[in-house]
Q: What sequence folds into this?
């Protein structure tokens, strides 16, 4: 079907199993631009229609989206700074709270917390790693794993809104954890 200024195309994406996944999928679709409709039904794929012109490239791609990139790849393309509290003698909890507040002062909401699979975060905070083994979020931030990150570092990733997706991350803060030997 030919639409004003382009062609109307229809596509589907798999319906994620959780609410956060569904919201992320819908945001990704809407970011493609020129979306005319999005339809969802329980147990069915998300179906959407959008208008595209030949100059846009492939009808289901968007140059603004970073879908498919790992969170580490997305963060590397954004501003990343060292926490100003890395050199302080603050205890783990104090250091982390200060880092969260620093992000707030910079007007970012911490949306994602990146840790390594063998992270020292739980010991640093004095938490039992067995209690946190199945955690998917911490202090309101979604927990993400990155195998390339050192176990003694965490990344606080920030965006302008609490419900931001990975590709909406604008700023990250590297926090070094030092455990008392």
A:
């Amino acid at each position: 079907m030919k639409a004003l200024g382009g062609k109307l195309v229809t596509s589907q994406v798999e319906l994620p199993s959780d609410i956060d996944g569904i919201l992320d999928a819908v945001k990704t679709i809407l970011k493609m631009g020129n979306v005319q409709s999005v339809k969802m039904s329980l147990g069915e794929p998300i179906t959407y229609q959008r208008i595209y012109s030949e100059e846009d490239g492939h009808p289901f791609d968007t140059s603004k989206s970073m879908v498919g990139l790992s969170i580490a790849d997305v963060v590397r393309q954004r501003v990343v700074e060292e926490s100003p509290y890395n050199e302080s003698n603050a205890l783990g909890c104090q250091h982390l709270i200060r880092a969260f507040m620093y992000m707030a002062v910079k007007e970012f909401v911490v949306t994602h917390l990146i840790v390594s699979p063998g992270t020292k975060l739980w010991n640093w905070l004095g938490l039992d790693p067995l209690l946190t083994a199945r955690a998917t979020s911490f202090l309101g931030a979604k927990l993400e794993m990155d195998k390339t990150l050192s176990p003694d570092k965490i990344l606080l990733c920030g965006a302008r809104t609490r419900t931001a997706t990975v590709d909406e991350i604008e700023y990250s803060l590297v926090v070094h954890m030092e455990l008392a030997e």
In short: Residues 92-105 form the longest helix (14 residues). Strands lie at 2-3, 6-13, 35-39, 46-52, 79-82, 109-115, 137-138, 141-145, 153-159, 171-176.
